[in-house]
Amino acid sequence: MTRANPQWHDFDKAQEVLVVFQGPHAYISPSWYEIELSVPTWNYAVVHAYGLPRLIEDEKDLYNLLKTLVQTHEASFEKPWTFQLADDYVQKMMHGIVGFEIQITRLEGKFKLSQNRTATERENVIAALQESKDTLALAELMKRVD
Fold first, then answer.
1. 133: exposed, middle or buried (C-beta count within 10 Å: 0-12, 13-18, 19+)?
2. pLDDT at 134
């Protein structure tokens, strides 16, 4: 995170932290249900990761973390960026961030995907979600869980 963000000052090796990984989510209209007397809701998938934070203070370790992150996220691109920068520039940029890792102590996953609705209503919700590229991932997740 950026060094200017004060949150990293609150990291304590003995104090558990929470990281929320938000999966696909979307508003669900009651008009997609068979039952007329319904209300809007929200479908979602989420993972809460709890763990103990550790600052990465060694420059070589921080560089290796950044290089791994770049390689991971660039891998799917046709022409991945290779993180080949002048050492003085990399050092300058690294001084503006704080690297950290979290030793996971527990994970909690939860999803609400209209599982309380009838099969027909779930199909209606999936069909409606498939109409927008913004909600397609949620529709695909609902099909896999169904």
1. exposed
2. 96
Q: Report yes or no: 74 and 53 within 8 Å, Cβ to Cβ.
A: no
Would you call 72 helix, strand, or coil by DSSP?
helix
Rounded-to-integer distance, Cα 122 and Cα 116, Å:
9
Domain count, the chain: 1
Answer whether residue 70 is part of any domain.
no
Tell me, what CATH number does 109's domain have? 2.30.110.10
pLDDT at res. 117? 95
The answer to whether the beta carbons of residues 56 and 101 sit under 8 Å apart is yes
Q: What is the pLDDT of residues 2-57, one digit of tens each?
A: 999 999 999 988 899 999 999 999 999 999 999 888 999 999 999 999 999 999 99
* Cα–Cα separations (whole angstroms), residue 122 to 31, 132, 142: 12, 16, 8
- Counting Cα atoms < 13 Å in the Cβ hemisphere of 135 gives 19
Residue 18: domain span:
6-56+98-145
- 114 conformational bin, left if phi > 0, alpha if psi -120 to 50, beta if neither: left
